[in-house]
Amino acid sequence: MTQKEETMLEDYLPFFEELSETDKEQIRSHTRLMHAEKGEMIHKGNEDCLGFLIVKKGQFRSYIISEEGKEITVYRLFERDMCLFAASCIFRNIDFDIWMEAKEESDYWVIDPGVYGKLMETSLPVMKYTNDLMASRFSDVMWTMEQILSKSMDKRLAAFLMEEAENEGAEEITLTHEMAARELGTAREVISRMMKYFQQEGFVAASRGKVRILDKNALYELAEGSLR
Amino acid sequence: MTQKEETMLEDYLPFFEELSETDKEQIRSHTRLMHAEKGEMIHKGNEDCLGFLIVKKGQFRSYIISEEGKEITVYRLFERDMCLFAASCIFRNIDFDIWMEAKEESDYWVIDPGVYGKLMETSLPVMKYTNDLMASRFSDVMWTMEQILSKSMDKRLAAFLMEEAENEGAEEITLTHEMAARELGTAREVISRMMKYFQQEGFVAASRGKVRILDKNALYELAEGSLR
DNA sequence: CACTTTCCGTAACAAAGTCACAAACCCGGT
DNA sequence: ACCGGGTTTGTGACTTTGTTACGGAAAGTG
């Protein structure tokens, strides 16, 4: 790892300055900078215990998956976001499996779970930060839960399309019906039907694997209350 | 608060022995023993900041509620369980509203949120315990999410009925269709339809506000994979 | 008992999920 | 350019779940 990268890692960790010099060194020497291609899975349920994760560049989606293979995204990670659940082995009370996939080409740091765990057990600022992070993800999941509970699929899809356009910084987004279904925890056919409706109404134009947003306002009105 | 109650509170808090004498005294003097009648709501979304909660006796359900009034239970609290979310004001990253209701006549302690918050900020064991607790509730919620995502309503209802029977320690449980619907996040009519089916199949016998389990094995088979 | 409230049953319809299959599209190889 | 195989989308038929709108039965109250 180069000096430049080290410096940046420190910037990304809010508690870094509060650590002792030995702890800082521990982190520096047990952090890997990694790279993921678009679509690459970096964490698969309980198959591994990767470590504490910091997004340097790019975007990830965290999702759960049922035995039958049905997926739903529970939260997203963007630049500077961090996640504990790829290191669930260091938390004895966590017994769910989460999957993580790069939404685009991404760079991320991984702090060794053993090192982070030990640090957490001995440093109040780190433990506090960990707690804040957990609370933050908790809120994400609760938000998702509320959406599932109370919003109809057309509203959720409209919100999702707007977010994707926002993320990509373009009117046209790269997205198959299958992908949207996985995000929202529904079936591909349901998305197809709604896309057909959205097209008929002139909200979007679609071609294979692409969706172009035509009427932002109409989608916005539909999505009302489902936007973060 | 009598000597006897104080002694018991200490038994319920795993980190108590690790505290300084002044911190112990802080907790002792800022904890109230409270009582709730069956059906009583002890926490309503963001209306209050009750404090850190410890169940002494009884049972609570924590649920979320949509704008339209649709509810779903996200986790339960039993004897010795604790909960942070009635003190969400001390966590800046928590921005969801949770409601809590006594499922039966219950006794519980409430530690003042300010005192708990301060203690947490200064004591590593308390912060660690808080973190464990958060992780534990997180797991509960993720479990609920998976159920919603992948289990059909009949399986979820079967599982719920068996749990209720387990909790009450009896074959006959006190439960209206409305109550079951609120637990599972569905509509009363859906429960009615399924109860009718369960009765026709001879799984249960029902009368107004009561359900008696007749065929435990059949329900168990249905519920397979939806039992905690 | 009459009256009110709560609980349950049900029909009719809408939304969403499942299953099955076919058509359209894209890409690489010839 | 054409062919072939994989991927993506379209669609119909059907099931399950959610919604709306009732009415009636059961329990509680004065």
UniProtKB/TrEMBL annotation, chains A, B:
Keywords: DNA-binding, Transcription, Transcription regulation. It comes from the Bacteria. It holds the Pfam family cNMP_binding. The keyword DNA-binding applies. Residues 151-217 form the HTH crp-type domain. Gene3D superfamilies: Jelly Rolls, Winged helix-like DNA-binding domain superfamily/Winged helix DNA-binding domain. InterPro entries: cNMP-bd_dom, cNMP-bd_dom_sf, Env_Response_Regulators, HTH_CRP, RmlC-like_jellyroll, WH-like_DNA-bd_sf, WH_DNA-bd_sf. The keyword Transcription applies. PANTHER family: CRP FAMILY TRANSCRIPTIONAL REGULATORY PROTEIN (PTHR24567), HTH-TYPE TRANSCRIPTIONAL REGULATOR ARCR (PTHR24567:SF74). This is Crp/Fnr family transcriptional regulator. It comes from Sellimonas caecigallum.
